Amino acid sequence: MTGERKRVALVIGAGSVKCAAALGLWKVLKREGIELDMVVGCSGGSLYATLMALGYDVDECEAMTIAMWNRKITSRRDYVSMLGAFLPKLFKFKGHFGMVNGEPLLRALELPFAGKTFADTIMPLYIVATELLSGHQATLSQGRIVDAVRASIAIPYIWSPWEVDGKLMLDGCLSAPLPVDVAIKEGADVILAMGFESPYPRKIRSATSYAFHVNSIYTNNLFRANYSFHNLAHHAEILPIVPEFGEPVNLFDTHKFAHVIACGERAAEEQVPYLRQLLGLGQQPSAQAT
Amino acid sequence: MDIVVEHRTVTTIVRITGSVDGLTADTLLATLQQQIDAGNIRLIGDLSDVSYTSSAGLRALLATVKHARQHGGDFRLAAVRPAVHKVLEMSGFTSILKMYDDVDLAVASFAA
User: Using a CB-CB distance cutoff of 8 angstroms, which residues of chain A are in contact with residue B56?
Assistant: First the structure.
């Protein structure tokens, strides 16, 4: 890295409710006066990346995610889709399926994102999804934000894929659970990488939990493989920020938001002295005040 | 970051204190490579006092492993703290590096 100002990126990986830890990290960055040059999100991380890029403050983000991410979004089964999947001769199979009706999810995403496009963001925003047919990673950075986020969180078998630019897209975690590569490609020097591995259940009690478990095995191994390569490939610095939650945090544990955010804040605070040194910012504001 | 080098009969132990990151990686790498170039190719990194490692630190560790193995030796890690272990695991290092609970076990591994 040269003496020029370093470009800072925040990358928030897949992790459902755990991704709210990024709000804790963001609080710390705000307090320290550290500005981001871009934000990248995948799956659950795309929600927070987008809220930040649209300029909402931390409290607004928390309130919006509580309103958005709750059990209502999985309350309706998609029986038509399931019949097509399990009885394809009687009910035509359309090439994909999801067990949950996507309408409540779409309505929830429209609370904060209706009418918003990537042009409305205050900093560059990149959302990662996965093309269903080719399997390629797709980095979305223009068009309707609702579409990009809906595609990025299309958990396989739960929600149907979502069409963006004429292509059906699935959850970004299938190709890049922690898309550090996007930040590298877009010219970031210092990359704050907040990633989460999917937890494994103690017991597999149903076909659904078996499908989730197998999916987690794939994505966790992909997470590590990608992260290994990106660590070695980057010319500058990737700071892993991996909060310790001390307890399981499941898909809809929104009642744990405060705890998750606090864990993210703590994990970020541990990196502050090094981050400030790296960015040439000198002493911490709190240290200067004393 | 502090680095203390201790030579034993067969192995060389490098005790590292602090963070292995972009600000310290060059110094660490230079020290470790110096040891290998001097013929101390059975190296053990004592990480019991290392609290953090970033991508730059990981690159320094990897370069050392490759350098040591090219010279017929190895670079093994001992007493890695859980937070650092997690990063090493995320980064695939635990599948290519030999790691031991303490320095004595790492020393013994070179005798095996």
Answer: 236-237
